[in-house]
Here is the input.
Amino acid sequence: MPLHLEPLDMSVELEGYKSVLIVSCPICPPVSLATDGGSPLMEFFRSGIKTGAYEDYVREVRKSLEERGVKTGVFTSYLPCTAMCLWTKGQRNRLWKRAKDYEAALVMGCESARYTVEETLKNTDCRVLLGMRLVGITNATLKFEFPLTAKLEDLARVKANEVIQDDSHQRPMI
Ligand code: SF4
Here is the structure.
């Protein structure tokens, strides 16, 4: 079910900012990077419950910003809800506290993740930028291997351009 998201080169958009907080959704972005590179979703003894390929990507983004003198930080939240589109008020408050000291928040996630961050930070001076774009929906078979490794096999990309019918039962779009 995860959305397949492609990282964007945001170096031009981030020019001029002195501090950037990377706000990361822990669901779709790690799955996207792992499936793009054909690497495991989880190798417990290498990166715990995190996805190595995604952690490497975030590290690279931070390094390239820090080489330009930009202060960086990373914010994510797993509990009580992992999906950023459903974060609780408590999780959003923690983001607000962390992000108010940054000039920009770079969202790793989908448009709904961006919405979460924009709504949370709307009364701050922190500018919100989206660092990924939607290219499809992932379908794969989850496979576990010894020792504590999770992989995604039989990978398929499902198109995300479903036409929404005009239906009086549907709730209005925001
Ligand atoms: S916020 Fe977007 S990227 Fe994160 S879990 Fe929800 S749909 Fe996936």
Notes: The chain has a mean pLDDT of 90.
